[in-house]
Amino acid sequence: MHDPLWQSMRDDGGIAGHPVRFLAATDSTNTVAMALAREGAPPGTLVVAEGQSAGRGRLARQWLSPPGRGLYVSFILRPTLELADLPKITLAAGVALCRAVVRATNVGVRLKWPNDLLLHGKKCGGILAETSGLVGDGPMAVILGIGINVNTPQAFFPAELNDKATSLAATAGREFMRGPLLLALVEEVDDVVRLLEKGGFAEILAAWRQHDGLTDQRLTWITPQGAVVTGISLGPDEDGRLHIRDDAGTVHEVLSGDLTLAAGCSPFWPAVSPTTITRPGRRN
Ligand code: BTN
User: Fold this and answer.
1) What is the pLDDT of residue 132?
2) 221-226 long-range Cβ contacts below 8 angstroms, 24+ apart
């Protein structure tokens, strides 16, 4: 597919005013971006790869990254945020991701806390935000890695992921250009990061909730102690923590981890151990 924007990004090494390090192949754009950040790469630098041999997701999962099919990009950010606010970047990026996909492809997508992009209940994109730690006196870098399954044929996903993963093309039945999608993503990420730095998380949260694919759905998760808890998703709070109300009315604040739709709702992602704080009776 002729994709002039993708071509010009490759040729010029830039998009929307951002310098781009384009790689025909790499292990992980997040790994490359982290190394560049530690060497002092300017904020706003993007690392884009045609394919990844060791694409990474949260919780040490692999990210399938066949060459020429998806969007694999890492942003080097040096946001002026308090350390405690850094997790909000993942939620902000989710909003940017939804907006960019709708703008560039007109495909309606939803979010699953904290970092999944869903299309008809299957995962078609994800976000992996990593921090560099403090390097000398310089500001901390955040590597914001985003992967979108754009034109990946359904048959490329392993059988065990077939009912859990998809691509925009596999679901929509037509292919999409990656250049306009990357441009939209870069512009939307710029917008939400600026808003976050101005203290606008409430606005981001309101937008996130509009894209939330799990509100009022029954979920199952495993507590750090290994207990299996089932409840209703109430969405993220003003600190970005997900609230889940169990059947006894206790509201749990989930800080990290992953969630599974309850049995009978839909086959979904394997549950792993999240970190939770439990506050009886809050936010019914
Ligand atoms: C997840 O769903 O857990 C996050 C997936 C993030 C994948 C992207 S692809 C670009 C960047 N490089 C990586 O190795 N991972 C992220």
Assistant:
1) 84
2) 221/254, 221/257, 221/258, 221/259, 221/260, 221/271, 221/274, 221/276, 222/271, 222/272, 222/273, 222/274, 223/252, 223/273, 223/274, 223/276, 224/273, 224/274, 224/275, 224/276, 226/273
